[in-house]
Amino acid sequence: MICRVCDSLRLDPVIDLGQQPWCNHFLRQEEIGKEPFYPLKVVHCADCETAQLDFTVPKETMFGDHTYLSGVTRSLSQHFEQVAHEVNQRFFSQHSDKTVLDIGSNDGTQLKHYQKLGWKVLGVESSKGTAQRALEQGVPTRNVFFNQTNAQGLGGPFQVINASGVFFHLEELHSVADGIRSCLAPDGVFLVQFLYMQKIVENGAFDQIYHEHLLYYNLKTLERLLQRHGLTCFDAYLAPIHGGSMMAFVQHREGPHPSTGREKAILAEEGRKGSNRKDWYLNFAQRIARMKHENIEILGERKSRGKRIYGMGAPVKGNTLLNYFQIGPDIIDCLVEKNELRRNLFSPGMHIPIRMENEIETAPDVYYVLAWNFKHEILKNHADLLARGVEFLFPVDTDLVA
User: Which has the least CB within 10 A, 5, 41, 216, 281?
Assistant: First the structure.
């Protein structure tokens, strides 16, 4: 393997989460026990310092059709609304004909907020069923994989290109980056919203490592990739969504937008903390092993006292945690979910049944919260259960959540 960003051959193993199933492949009853497993290992590039997976599950397997929907969670929709207003007001409030392209547009939740502000929108979404949902809700969407070839037929240039939670998924990384550069207007803004690896480590959020996430950027490593493709970051800040997402504002290398200085401050902080160094990740691997021991001990103690335990949420990342911790239906009776696309399915690997939240008649004694990144929303929505003494356990607990 060569480095996904800089083509270096100097890749060092740092984190090994074992053999795991593709975690977005929720199973039908007849599929249980037949799902394939793949290595889930993070390596560190000694040259550009990018953390990345050393194995690629084909994009057609992972993104041809899946069950994730952006619109299910109120906090995420609210975040997308704030993003649209910020971009519109900061950069293009005086423009009359405004166009935005969303790469990995999912069910169109982000683009709907741009539509309300009068923008002409276009989504590119590889998941067939998800793209169809967007179209049915009035969001123009192309059901293709975005890359340099497909970019030519999208009708750009676009004032704004958005990539929310997708820029670290890319098997065709350099083709996508070239496609973005060719579609971006000369004064355009490319907004990259990505899980921030420094915050993943600080939070202990190892469950955000899974096969869909091929790359784990800090701002320094993202900038290394951008520079290779004639792009550069001129502003950045950390948003609370998903436990700490970096909002990076990118333009052409000779673009008109002045640096705010915030991106320079973040780069300086990464340097002070050493969050791009190999030993940063090796220390994280040791911490992950301790978390496994601690969580199994806590759940085992509750189970020994006869407590009934349900999982709160069936997020994709939760399957990394369940499979690495080896937590199955002998410990957690079911996963409680809002997303109707996961009705009557089972978690890959551990085979925990999924039940719809509105069909739970009797609350458990304990909720083990896999959707920990929406902690505040979950606790607010279930204040009545808290008052009745239901315990909510968070395997990853951070204040930087939605």
Answer: 41
How far apart CA 324 and CA 81 sit, in angstroms, is: 35
Instruction: Report the distance separating Cα 327 and Cα 332, nearest Å.
Output: 7
- The domain locations on the chain are 70-273, 279-393
Q: What is the dihedral of CA 225, 229, 235, 239, to 10 degrees?
A: -50
Among residues 223, 114, 247, 97, the alpha carbon closest in space to that of 157 is found at: 97
* Number of residues assigned to the chain: 402
What pLDDT, on a 0 to 100 scale, did the predictor assign at position 367? 97
3-state secondary structure 36-90: CEEEEEEEEECCCCCEEECCCCCHHHHHCCCCCCHHHCHHHHHHHHHHHHHHHHH
- Tokens 């990505």 appear where? 194
Amino acid identity, residue 17? L
The confidence score (pLDDT) of residue 377 equals 87
List the CATH code of the domain at 70-273. Answer: 3.40.50.150
Alpha carbon distances (Å) from 207 to 288, 371, 396: 10, 10, 9
The whole-chain average pLDDT of the chain stands at 92
What's the CATH number for 279-393?
Answer: 3.40.50.720
pLDDT tens profile 183-214: 999 999 999 999 999 999 999 999 999 998 99
C-alpha separations of 281 from 177, 201, 208, 218, 309 in Å: 26, 8, 14, 12, 32
Mean predicted confidence (pLDDT) in 28-51: 96
Q: Which two tokens stand for residue 135?
A: 């179209």
User: Are 261 and 219 within 8 A, CB to CB?
Assistant: no
Q: In whole angstroms, what is the distance from residue 55 CA to residue 79 CA?
A: 32
3-state SS record for 335-396: EEECCHHHCCCECCCCCCEEEEHHHCCCCCCEEEECCHHHHHHHHHHCHHHHHCCCEEECCC
Domains 70-273 and 279-393 share a fold: yes
Strand-pairing partners, residue 160, are: 100, 189
**CB contact set of 15 (below 8 Å; sequence gap of 6+):** 41, 42, 206, 209, 281, 284, 285, 288
Burial of 98 from C-beta contacts in 10 A (0-12 / 13-18 / 19+): buried
pLDDT band at 401 (very low <50, low <70, confident <90, very high): low
Residues of the chain with pLDDT > 90, as a percent, come to 77
